[in-house]
Design goal:
Two copies of one chain form a homodimer.
Chain A (H helix, E strand, L loop, with lengths): L17 H5 L15 E7 L5 E7 L1 H4 L4 E6 L10 E3 L4 E3 H8 L4 E2 L5 E7 L2 H9 L2 E6 L6 H5 L12 E9 L2 H7 L2 E9 L11 E6 L5 E5 L4 H11 L7 E5 L15 H11 L3 E4 L2 H7 L6 E9 L5 E13 L6 H7 L9 E9 L13 H19 L3 H8 L18 H10 L1 H4 L10 E12 L6 E7 L5 E5 L7 H13 L6 E5 L16 H28 L5 E3 L2 E4 L2 E4 H5 L10 E6 L7 E12 L5 E11 L6 H20 L30 E6 L21 H13 L10 H10 L1
Parallel strand pairs in A: 1-14, 12-13, 16-17, 20-21, 27-28
Antiparallel strand pairs in A: 1-7, 2-6, 2-8, 3-7, 4-5, 9-17, 10-15, 11-12, 11-14, 15-16, 18-26, 19-20, 19-25, 22-23, 23-24, 26-27
């Protein structure tokens, strides 16, 4: 790692919030306390698709302890209009309708009404007493079903809400020239982010008209935007305080219960808390889409990719705005291909409205592309990493969706994979006669995002600083942000006290998502620290009556005068008062990140069980601010990728009910399912960021399913085309042979 | 009022925190909730002066529910040194000793030990089981007693801890030249600020070594400074969150229970809350000093004051650092006298360490001076306001304590008093035969202070702004600060959302005291708003590609282009991200304020009861940002001045026990005791402040006792020389005639 120029960047200090988190002191969504609290419960639809004929709340209202009941009619009935709440333009009625159904329910678990009562039990019991009469309607559950002629429609509009097309060159003509063409179809399952903490929110509609929200969210300002929009309030009438968050992975960007709690608070005049249970989370929050993908790739005799075509049909869930867009951006992003045609379809189905999930849409796409690349390599008898290197995207490569790559680390990641001891290590003998071993590789891309961030740094008299920012800390970003400030200030990172504050206290800050927090909020911290140094330089100049004060390595100097940061910090009051630096950014030049996986598996051919023997994740971090956190992201993304490669799926009954909505039945990997995951950080600094940071939270989930599919193929000679690749599906595939 | 140039300044908008306060939602010190909370109780000394022979906590420790017990030995035993924690230099051992007594108790109510238990009752019961063996010592209870030869000493040092001397000219020689000399002696009682909310604090010594405090305080950063000093931690290891505060008046600047709660938290590993009761407040917190004052004033035949001498002996209480210093600065501040000699004595007595109380020290002094001035006026047969005008301080007048007055409003206040209809209105006939009526006047001065303040303003997309600051809001300062920002930003004050935040979130901000908050934090808000306009002007320039953008009256303009503040606010994200302005100040040029009172009384000569018939308070506000709040301060100061004029006093037994430590026996004025108080704001802008603000919180308490004494003299012909002027003392004085 090229951390030579830095004192703090690249080190591994303890996290500032560590003690609170390991001692149980951190306040998560459901922990928040406030006097007079009522408890909310949400009544959810048992049907995947039905007309709501009537809602009778009288029995519920009579239940002891019930204070308020709300339905969709309690929202301000502002006329429908197109709004952009941070996830693209969409009708207001859709945003509102997903929070509380109106007229129709569109998925099992769709919220219909809510109750506030003096105890959680009373609220739950009363919710069950709300009489809703439904007329069930036919449902569609997959993208191909939704696209089929005559399919049942969820809304007035067609089920295909967006058809995205990207093209460069002439793919059809180029395929004619190809020495070899492989075309395959793939299916991926609907999977959930599976964050450990269910959604939890408390709302207080105050007597002064302002609404306060305390909740577990990836973006307090997004909650502010959505809640103010749905309640028809100016954004400044809503104050959102983010609690600690027990994971999100994209699934805690959408807003579900916050506006409902607010409506209940307005009705009751008291604060109301709603806490989801796991079933609510599975059925009432947004999973990532299942998909159907067809990928066709043509190469010349030397293995040079000359043509590519992709058809991506992704489930949108019950409302438009699914994850197919990023899928189309990432499906061929790793390769420099002159002729490409991509069609992406966002398809309404009777499942929860889909949400982001760690590089949303890219994992599905990479499963397809990287399986096809692997097959091409085998047919061409070229080492699969060599084949990828021969075609790898690099600075200047133009993507089919438009942009030209700036400096990226695709080649460096592939070279690191090739050079890694894992890649050349022997696979070893299978553990028993019915077992076979194989090795697979794959790479993946995620573009990362910018968005606004704000940071304010106040200097304490003891030479430390307090840093406030608005990015929910999911993966240690308090510390990775503090480190960037400390680097500039020339002080130990323990001397920076970072705090995540509410929306009244800091400038607009985008979501913790898109791998942007260390990148963008860290950038704001860097700039705010520079602002502090500028102001302190002025103070030193005042003290010394000098105009040539320089700051370097934590020391202010002019001639023979010098003061350390801490020494000058002690003199601020007398020289003009406190020093507070601030900066806001809205960077556009997020640096995309490539990640690669080498995976060894052993498959039991009798049971179809896949055991992962060795797993290596390699990723370009740009600059690894805190390598442990980068490694943690790589391991976390790997485990999740393994989960949806091998086990995870929404198991739906034909009438659209999820039949495995518990963590016992929805099979996420446990510590027994995954081996230790080796990591190797590649650093190809992002030239647009002051420290070279790229986002590292997402690209790592992209390659695992493809790498495992390729490893299974290596072991068994079968090409799995459907996720999850669980034992029954492997046994079934083997049976076809 | 000269508010013509302003849109917001001088208006009377609703307060931002009003709804929370009238609906009971505001969180005061005792309301704060946190999981795992323990309750603390403090054991206090029953003796005014005693040696602590032994402390045995074993019985208390065995009491059910007790989790921790602490004494002074639990403080880090750092060597004694001189510290300055915002109230002048003092030995660390004194600060520590006042929080928990070590070796000796110095006043009844002195904290000796504390218990944390699972319920408040258990903590109180257990505290009583701590066995402390005392050897009582002789006590001194007044300043003259403390100064007497052979008086019992509280500390190693002499009871007179400071002898302050100010002089200009040659007072002795000048008295020889005087046509008339009046010299009188006065006594004032120890009185308490009587804030409605007793002290309350919660502390959590966290596992990461940081201490968090939530408390009712006038200065969160002072609490941070004191707690960190006593616990031997860097200031940044302590985070103080100020709750709402139910009054302070200076009495919530000192720190009492916060370090004790922190020690109990360290011992118990849990958060600990301590809440004082009213008796604790009277006996264990700092009242303002009783005093003995001798004032001698000489005038020439035309009533021109040519010589003045004052002897001020103030109770320090149990530790040095009493309020005599400001007394010496204010005693003759209203008058331009060429020859002055002032001696001030800070005298240790066995009462609680005194604290600031609204213009601390000045009310005592003005009672003396203004009584003597009134007597001179009568002897010279000059109208008392005319006599004062003839001698009034004005710009350029040098005070005996050194500084030369900048632009002040002493003359303007006196002229407003003279012109006020009250001054020429007939007194009316007494209500019964045994009643007599009289009118009195007096003026008073308070210098006000500066100190650091910090402010950060973030712009919302809806054209509003969020403003954070660190000044506890006692008298509506959220709004008076927000108004100054709104004036600069050209937006309605309701569009500024002010919040008082914790010490981790804002730059160092001094106490809400010294009438500084609207002045200094308002100044920071003004500057931060200017910073916002600077940044937004840059954005407008970027949008229009123009370098001539001007901002006026809420509109940015360049050529034919224009954008309102709100319109531009909606365009910030796309033009570079959030706009956040900040400013910090540490102003030295606080503008002193003069206040005058005209009071009519009727005295029942049989009972001695004084009924106030009419009361007019007139004060120079510099610039009245929010006139209602200025009037509120004037009325509040008047009521408190009436209280210590007529009724309030610490009634002490000879062995130093307070015998009236309840609000039933310590007789504060109720609504039945005071008439409506008329106010008239004078505005002589402070040239050093961007809006001309002076402080208005204090000068108004200074004249009432003297004005009432002068009114009583006018009614009865007796000169009251001792506060309070309660019925028995008036009857006694009448009996002497």
């Amino acid at each position: 790692m090229s951390t030579a120029p830095y004192n703090i960047i690249g080190t591994r200090p303890p996290r500032h919030d560590g003690a609170d988190k390991v001692t149980g002191r951190a306040i998560y969504g459901a922990d928040f306390q406030i006097n007079g609290l009522l408890h909310g419960a949400v009544l959810r639809s048992p049907h995947a698709h039905a007309r709501i004929e009537s809602v009778d709340t009288s029995r519920a209202a009579a239940y002891p302890g019930v204070v308020a009941i709300v339905t969709a009619d309690d929202f301000p009935q502002t006329p429908d209009r197109i709004v952009d709440l941070g996830e693209g333009e969409t009708p207001l009625s859709y945003v509102r309708g997903n929070v509380l159904a109106k007229g129709k329910v569109l998925y099992q678990g769709h919220a219909v009404a809510a109750v506030a009562a003096t105890s959680p039990h009373a609220a739950e019991q009363a919710a069950k007493l709300i009489d809703v009469r439904y007329t069930p309607l036919p449902c569609v559950l997959t993208a191909p079903e939704g696209m089929a002629p005559g399919a049942s429609k969820l809304h007035e509009q067609e089920n295909v809400t967006h058809h995205i097309q990207h093209a460069i060159g002439d793919a059809d003509a180029a395929f004619q020239q190809a020495a070899i063409v492989v075309e395959r179809e793939f299916h991926t399952a609907t999977v959930h982010q599976g964050y450990i903490e269910p959604h939890a929110a408390t709302a207080l509609w105050n007597n002064d008209g302002r609404v306060q929200i305390w909740c577990s969210t990836q973006g307090s300002f997004v909650v502010r935007d959505v809640v103010s929009c749905l309640l028809d309030l100016p954004v400044s009438q809503v104050k959102v305080t983010p609690t600690e968050i027990g994971g999100g992975f994209g699934g805690k960007i959408p807003v579900y219960i916050e506006p409902v709690a607010a409506l209940l608070s307005r009705r009751s005049g008291r604060p109301v808390r709603i806490v989801m249970n796991r079933r609510d989370v599975f059925e009432g929050s947004g999973p990532t889409p299942g998909s159907f993908i067809r990928v066709k790739l043509g190469a010349d005799a030397e293995g040079r990719f000359i043509a590519a075509r992709a058809h991506l049909a992704y489930e949108a869930g019950a409302y438009p705005g699914g994850m197919v867009g990023p899928g189309t951006m990432c499906v061929f992003a790793a390769y420099d291909i002159p002729n490409v045609a991509i069609d992406g379809y966002d398809v309404l189905v009777n499942k929860p409205s889909t949400a982001a999930y760690r590089a949303p849409g890219a994992t599905n796409a990479a499963f397809a592309t990287e399986s096809v690349v692997d097959e091409l390599a085998r047919q061409l008898k070229i080492d699969p990493l060599e084949l990828r290197l021969r075609n790898a995207s690099r600075e200047g490569t133009r993507r089919a969706d438009g942009p030209k790559f700036r400096r990226i680390g695709c080649v460096e990641v592939l070279e690191a994979m090739k050079a890694h001891p894992h890649y050349s290590a022997p696979l070893g003998a299978a553990s028993h006669a019915a077992a076979k071993r194989g090795r697979g590789t794959a790479i993946g891309y995620w573009f990362n995002i910018g968005l606004p961030s704000s940071c304010v740094i106040s200097v304490n008299a003891d030479g430390t600083v307090n840093l406030i920012e608005g990015s929910t800390d999911i993966g240690g970003t308090r510390t990775s942000i503090a480190m960037q400030a400390a680097e500039v200030l020339g002080i130990p990172v323990a001397d920076v006290h970072p705090a995540v504050v509410d929306t009244d206290t800091i400038g607009y800050t985008g979501v913790t998502g898109g791998s942007r927090t260390t990148y963008a909020t860290g950038w704001a911290a860097h700039d705010a620290a520079k602002d502090v140094i500028r102001l302190m330089t002025e103070r030193a100049a005042k003290i010394w009556q000098a105009d040539d004060v320089q700051f370097a390595n934590g020391i202010f100097r002019s001639g023979n005068n010098q003061l350390t940061f801490a020494e000058l910090a002690a003199k601020l009051t007398e020289t003009g008062g406190p020093v507070v630096g601030q900066a806001s950014v809205n960077p556009k030049a997020a640096g995309g990140s490539f990640a690669g996986v080498i995976a060894d598996v052993e498959v039991d051919v009798e049971t179809g069980k896949v055991t992962i023997l060795r797993f290596t994740s390699i990723q370009d971090a740009g600059r690894a601010i805190h390598p442990s956190y980068v490694e943690g992201q790589m391991q976390g993304g790997s485990v999740q990728g393994i989960g949806w490669a091998l086990n995870e799926e929404y198991w739906m009954s034909p009438d659209g009910r999820m039949v495995n909505s518990t963590l016992l039945d929805y099979r996420m990997p446990t510590i027994l399912d995954v081996p230790p995951i080796d990591t190797q950080i590649v650093e190809v600094p992002n030239p647009a960021h002051p420290f070279g940071v790229r986002g590292v939270g997402e690209a790592n989930i992209v390659p695992p399913p493809a790498a495992l599919a390729n490893a299974i193929h290596d072991a068994l000679g079968i090409r799995m085309s459907r996720l999850p690749m669980n034992p029954p599906s492997i046994v079934a595939e083997l049976a076809k042979q």
